[in-house]
Write a structure and sequence with these properties.
Number of helices: 3
Strand order of the largest sheet: 1-2
Number of strands: 2
Oligomer: single chain
Helix content: 25-40%
Order of helices and strands: EHHEH
Largest sheet: 2 strands, parallel
Strand content: 5-15%
Length: 78
């Protein structure tokens, strides 16, 4: 017979990232795919990914390059 198994609870600790809002640096140009993949790595849901991507684009912290560079955020994340 096999050994009995036990359930071990796993706590989730969300990460908090600080962003310098006064940074004069040029916004980083990324493709929509690169941005979504990066945000997805630290997000727990599609809604969180969409909200974060929309915020980042609207804030001017990043700008899109490639096929979607001229597409309004409302069409991308709306």
């Amino acid at each position: 017979m096999g050994q009995a198994s036990i359930a071990v609870p796993i706590d989730h600790f969300p990460m908090v990232h600080e962003i310098d809002a006064n940074s004069p640096a040029e916004p980083r140009a990324v493709t929509l795919l690169e941005l979504i993949e990066a945000v997805s790595e630290v997000s727990e849901s599609e809604q969180e990914v969409l909200a974060t991507v929309a915020y980042m684009l609207n804030s001017g912290r990043v700008r899109l390059s490639g096929s979607f560079r001229d597409t309004p955020v409302t069409r991308l994340c709306g």
